[in-house]
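Discrete fold record:
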Amino acid sequence: CVYAFSNATVLYVKILGVDTPMMFWFALTFSAYLQFVESFAPRTGLWLGMLIAISVSTKEQIGGSYVLLVAVVLAMYLRRRRDAERHATEPPATRGLWLMIVGVVATYAILSRLVLDPVGWITRMRWWFGEGTDPSMWGGFPNTIAGQLELLAETGARLATSMGIPLLALSAAAACFALARSGGRAWRVALPLISYYVFLIAIIRYTGTRFMLPVIFLLAALTGVAVAHPFFRRRAPAVAALVAVVAVFSWSVHRCVKSNALMAKDPRYRAEAYLAAQLPARVRVEVYDDDHYLPRIEQLGFVRDFERDHMRQDEFLRRRPEAVVLVPGCWWKFTTKQRRFVAWLRTSSGYSECVLDPDPESSFLADDDLRLIQPAIIILRRPG
């Protein structure tokens, strides 16, 4: 429930990004991991290896959580083997570890196209270990102690936005309780969480709402470890915990419904209605932003044009489209020259401007979420 009723989960399930299937496979991987460190059964090891490969092949960012997860598996295996030697009992089967490795290598080689397209795979890996992890590409924080502290603070702020402060406070308190009272069980959950931050977020020095999904999931798992502690089997703690959980989750459900309602009031619907009401069919409408912001222009009967190479004053005055659609949330991708062109469009081209603002109730969303489900939209109309 901690994960399901987080604002970030609702958002990314709705927009159907690759983060949603990544989290599905990560959840199965995490379940197999917890089973494997208890039993070291060969079949479970094979499933664990395959699921690690599937989740990483879905989206590489989740690989950051597996660095310490694999370390925990190896440490638990060595500990169980040492205990078996000390007590003269049967040691855990080595075959489980080998099958895990085989599952990772074989499944990843197929799903990542390492076998089918080795050149493409090498190109992808060069991107990931070069440009893809270059903080300057993402507008990341500086590689200093102050920069890392700012990044940590930003991650906390993203968590608060993604979960809501009451749910985050409840999960953080439960996590602290679990780490203090549940020992190894809690740390087996916490170490993949630490690994995700250290081996992904701290390296690229950038964070966003989509990066919080694994963090929220692992906080939810730590909450589960805390609730399973014998302390909460006593009547008084159990009643107090139940009251707190009901109150926080009621608030979270309300917040999720609010997020869904905001999606239904997306300014893009208003932009489509405005264009359909104000413009005749088959006229030219130029859209200078990402296709997915207004994907149904052609379905409304307009002729769509989108070419950033055409963002020049002389060519624009020669074309003189009936309307221009702008989404400020995309302008961060523009070059300085393109931004000057947009400024000229709005101030000196002679076109009249209509601004469709986000819903005022969307203020609890992070900036990047606002661009996804509540983007401000500007429509410029040709004079006359």
